[in-house]
């Protein structure tokens, strides 16, 4: 299975990705996770990307494309499935991804577009907490950890993303509308777009997704 998860911040891409990854054992490539991991290092790249992320802006295309290109060239075997989460984020990246696919002789099965309403997005983002050690995602009311601020999976400390504040979320929403939403058209023309209701509970969405897979022969797990 080779898919892209698309949607505004807080649409539930990361939560759905956990379930898909668990069931289908495919590689989950989240550019946001990769960048956050990089930010924890004291590297020149960390310094470069920090200000973009904390301002809710997109990291420059050449930085992000280098990361994704390396993943496809080094980490993904030709017959292995993958799930891209947070990439592509604009038309230039979508075109670059097609070039990477051409080079690595692969192609996309589908783009899962998660639409979500603003009140749901704001509630999800304001309560989101992440484990510093393993990256597991919790929510203060929707999915609270058993012990406050401690990860259920690895006992690591939970933190709130520096870009999960109201002001930065507004900027990220604007970036989504201006830069990311236009690629819906790009994938619509390729007849690859599946749109689902991101306000819906993740488990229900996952079950609907699995059912759609069974009905659509294009998608096959490797
Ligand atoms: P995410 O975890 O997907 O919400 O991404 C967090 C932040 O990382 C975004 O607001 C951007 O600053 C940056 N980022 C993640 N993916 C990309 C991408 N494909 N292109 C540019 N910036 C990105």
Round the mean pLDDT to the nearest integer and report it: 92
Strand order of the largest sheet: 2-3-1-4-8
Report the β-strand fraction as a percent range: 5-15%
Number of strands: 8
Ends: how far apart? 6 Å
Please tell me what the overall shape is.
globular
Tally of individual helices: 9
Largest β-sheet summary: 5 strands, parallel
Residue runs with pLDDT of under 50 for 5 or more positions: none
Q: What level of helicity do the residues show?
A: 40-55%
User: Nearest-angstrom radius of gyration?
Assistant: 17 Å
CATH H level of the largest domain: which superfamily?
P-loop containing nucleotide triphosphate hydrolases
Q: How many independent structural domains? A: 2
What does this structure look like?
- The termini are close together.
- This protein has a 5-stranded parallel β-sheet. The chain has a 3-stranded antiparallel β-sheet with strand order 6-5-7.
- β5 (about 130) and β6 form a beta hairpin.
- It has 9 helices and 8 strands.
- It is an alpha/beta fold and about 220 residues long.
Features:
globular, 2 domains, 3-stranded antiparallel beta sheet, 48% helix, alpha/beta, 9 helices, 222 residues, binds adenosine monophosphate, Rossmann fold
Brief synopsis:
By secondary structure, the protein is α/β, with parallel strands linked by helices.
List strands and helices in order, with pairings.
Elements: E1 2-6, H1 13-24, E2 27-30, H2 31-39, H3 44-54, H4 61-75, E3 82-85, H5 91-103, E4 110-115, H6 118-127, E5 128-131, E6 137-139, E7 158-159, H7 166-180, H8 182-189, E8 193-197, H9 202-215
Parallel strand pairs: 1-3, 1-4, 2-3, 4-8
Antiparallel strand pairs: 5-6, 5-7
Helix pairs in contact: 1-9, 4-5
The structure holds adenosine monophosphate.
């Amino acid at each position: 299975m080779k898919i892209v998860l698309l949607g505004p911040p807080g649409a539930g891409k990361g939560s759905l990705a956990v379930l898909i990854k668990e069931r289908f054992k495919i590689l989950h490539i989240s550019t946001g996770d990769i960048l956050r991991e990089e930010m924890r290092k004291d590297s020149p790249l960390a310094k470069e990307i920090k200000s973009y992320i904390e301002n809710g802006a997109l990291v420059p295309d050449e930085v992000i494309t280098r990361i994704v290109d390396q993943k496809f060239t080094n980490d993904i075997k030709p017959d292995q499935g993958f799930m891209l989460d947070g990439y592509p984020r604009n038309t230039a990246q979508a075109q670059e991804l097609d070039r990477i696919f051409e080079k690595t002789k692969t192609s996309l099965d589908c783009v899962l577009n998660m639409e979500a309403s603003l009140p749901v997005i704001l509630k999800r983002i304001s309560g989101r907490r992440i484990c510093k050690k393993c990256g597991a995602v919790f929510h203060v009311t929707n999915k609270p950890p058993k012990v406050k601020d401690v990860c259920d999976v690895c006992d690591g400390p939970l933190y709130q993303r520096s870009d999960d504040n109201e002001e930065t979320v507004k900027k990220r929403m604007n970036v989504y509308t201006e830069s990311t939403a236009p690629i819906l058209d790009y994938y619509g023309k390729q007849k690859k777009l599946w749109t689902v209701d991101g306000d819906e509970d993740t488990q229900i969405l996952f079950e609907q997704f699995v059912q759609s897979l069974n009905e659509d022969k294009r998608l096959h797990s490797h």
